[in-house]
């Protein structure tokens, strides 16, 4: 049985128990949220995951790191190094988005070495293999698409992005909208090309029941992709985006009826004043299914620093209901990320997620911050480093310059807390 099917029968699985312990919540709460589709636990029956995670209502916001080769760059060893870096710095899941080299070998190696859930976008492999076999990518057959989906499910992929909401109606809305950046989703673009070439409906929408059968068989969580997500602020919250979201809301309910776990992907690029509204619209249309957002990026001019523009949007999105943040690296829009970019993206997303968790948890998540504040009050540099998201970096930064006293080199002899303690007789509070 799938996780949602088990929960509906009142069976608390080992994965649900693990999530309950991680989140410090009752097993009954986790079971209830899984049963109603408000929480997903991506865990393919063929993938042994050391660290499962729950995504959704009442849970800590999770983050995902994208890795994978491109047609220009990337090797098996480089992607495995990125995998281990992402997990080391706290990514809850990893997606393999490989489009170059031996895609199958890269995915299988990542699945074998990963201790966290792994996601993919199967249409990438289906289209690329078709290009190698037939020539044009659009010559991919419907059976080719579903063969790759089932093959990846058999291998143990825990969740898959499927752009089922890219329908002919959505394409019509896109044509009428006259966007600035048209479509920035690679999976969405693949399918739009196929649909226009064949003058047919999206196979992932038309044969959605076939997709549900595969997902149910292996307990693969469907991540309903946002192929019409806005790729710039000028296209935010427009008709193609909302048209697709309405379709995804209907597909969520069909997945639930089939006892299949499902979450929904969201934008994209959004100005600050659109973020709360987008979260509320999604939660309403998709009946509180977990919401997985890319960023959102709050400005288009952050080239080289888009991990920051994404973290700003991610913190706000999380505070208003997003459950799962897909990281963005500094190289977004510019190049394939390297190991350092992966680390920077993970850290930025973790900061965003934690900032939102402080709001969502009613302050409970701020206990970590309280411990850091106490360590700062006591000028305990080792503890500050240990409590940071990147202990090695914090330790190295503090030791960058020699100091004469207890304070850091920023203030030297004139540390505010040191002065107050000295002159007012305030004793440092012990942690």
Description:
The protein has 2 domains: 41-362, TIM Barrel; 365-424, no CATH class. The model has no long low-confidence stretch (mean pLDDT 95). By secondary structure, the chain is an alpha/beta fold. Strand 9 (291-294), helix 14 (306-319) and strand 10 (324-326) form a beta-alpha-beta unit. The protein is built from 19 helices and 10 strands. Helix 2 (14-23) packs across helix 3 and helix 16 (367-377) packs antiparallel against helix 17 (381-387). It starts with a helix and ends in a 7-residue tail after the last helix. Helices cover 51% and strands 9% of the residues.
Q: What does the average pLDDT come to?
A: 95
Task: Characterize the largest beta sheet: strand count, sense, and whether it forms a barrel.
Answer: 8 strands, parallel, barrel
User: What would you give as the CATH superfamily of the largest domain?
Assistant: Radical SAM ThiC family, central domain
What is the CATH top level name of the largest domain?
Answer: Alpha Beta
Q: How far apart are the termini?
A: 47 Å
Class of secondary structure makeup: alpha/beta
- Percent of residues in helices: 40-55%
State which percent range the strand residues make up. Answer: 5-15%
Integer-rounded radius of gyration: 23 Å
- Looking at the overall shape, the CATH architecture of the largest domain is Alpha-Beta Barrel
Number of strands: 10
Shape: globular
Low-pLDDT runs: none
CATH fold call of the largest domain: TIM Barrel
The side-by-side strand order for the widest beta sheet comes to 3-4-5-6-7-8-9-10
Write down the domain tally. 2
- Elements, N to C (H/E): HHHEEEHEHEHHEHHHHEHEHEHEHHHHH
Helix count? 19
